[in-house]
């Protein structure tokens, strides 16, 4: 089976369409959405509906922290620690989603175990506390918290790959986009495909990945799309200018 891995769509229709077009040309059997379907971008209704379509076609999806945030009430928002610009996008998004779309997000699980794989937005040790896997120590903690051999996470907007070491801990590996990386069965792995909707590694091209379960290989992909158009839509919606700028700069 070939899995299309899509993380942190962040209501970016242009990036989502470009990645799905690329992935369909390459061929995949099931889409896996790793959380944060909404937030930051100008097309939350479309991305929620597209997520529903992918699930209807046999795909899987987990809950992200921005998905959770749009379902909270105003009183809970007062306790939020989110950056003001992120909170502004959440408030705006909340007013755009229908009751059915909100119910869809609310029904998503925090994590999914699928054969030897774990799908989760943030990490395996506390999926709903939203801790980041930003280094090898955190990767090792997540790997140790699950029995699954391969973990796929979103949340971190930079693509990365970690593997277990015989002496303990984890090691970071930077795969080359477009090149299939064998995830050796003698190791345990944690893969961060990177953000589809808001990359932050200095490259505005959208991130996604393909995992071949038969070959045990992972291919990270970078997909160019019209990020200027997506940025203009953010500005036209009255959302913070910094969110548009991030798409253009990829930071």
Automatic annotation (TrEMBL):
<dbReference type="InterPro" id="IPR050126">
    <property type="entry name" value="Ap4A_hydrolase"/>
</dbReference>
<protein>
    <submittedName>
        <fullName>Metallophosphoesterase family protein</fullName>
    </submittedName>
</protein>
<dbReference type="InterPro" id="IPR011152">
    <property type="entry name" value="Pesterase_MJ0912"/>
</dbReference>
<dbReference type="Pfam" id="PF12850">
    <property type="entry name" value="Metallophos_2"/>
</dbReference>
<feature type="domain" description="Calcineurin-like phosphoesterase">
    <location>
        <begin position="1"/>
        <end position="214"/>
    </location>
</feature>
<comment type="similarity">
    <text>Belongs to the metallophosphoesterase superfamily. YfcE family.</text>
</comment>
<dbReference type="InterPro" id="IPR029052">
    <property type="entry name" value="Metallo-depent_PP-like"/>
</dbReference>
<dbReference type="InterPro" id="IPR024654">
    <property type="entry name" value="Calcineurin-like_PHP_lpxH"/>
</dbReference>
């Amino acid at each position: 089976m070939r899995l299309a891995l899509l993380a942190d769509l962040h209501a970016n229709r242009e990036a989502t369409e470009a990645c799905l077009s690329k992935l369909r040309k390459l061929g995949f059997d099931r889409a896996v959405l790793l959380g944060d379907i909404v937030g930051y971008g100008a097309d939350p209704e479309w991305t929620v509906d597209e997520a529903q379509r992918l699930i209807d076609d046999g795909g899987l999806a987990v809950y992200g922290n921005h998905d959770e945030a749009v379902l909270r009430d105003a009183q809970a928002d007062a306790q939020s620690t989110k950056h003001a610009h992120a909170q502004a996008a959440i408030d705006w998004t909340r007013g755009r989603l229908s009751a059915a779309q909100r119910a869809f997000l609310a029904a998503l699980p925090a994590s999914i175990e699928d054969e030897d794989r774990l799908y989760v937005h943030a990490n395996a040790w506390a999926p709903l506390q939203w801790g980041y896997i930003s280094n090898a120590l955190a990767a090792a903690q997540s790997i140790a918290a699950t029995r699954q051999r391969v973990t796929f996470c979103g949340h971190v907007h930079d693509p990365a790959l970690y593997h277990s070491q015989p002496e303990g801990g984890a090691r970071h590996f930077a795969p080359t986009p477009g090149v299939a990386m064998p995830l050796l069965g003698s190791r345990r792995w944690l893969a961060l495909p990177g953000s589809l909707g808001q990359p932050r590694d200095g490259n505005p091209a959208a991130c996604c990945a393909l995992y071949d379960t038969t070959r045990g290989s992972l291919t990270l992909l970078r997909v160019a799309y019209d990020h200027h158009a997506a940025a203009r839509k953010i500005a036209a919606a009255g959302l913070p200018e910094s969110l548009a700028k991030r798409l253009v700069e990829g930071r």
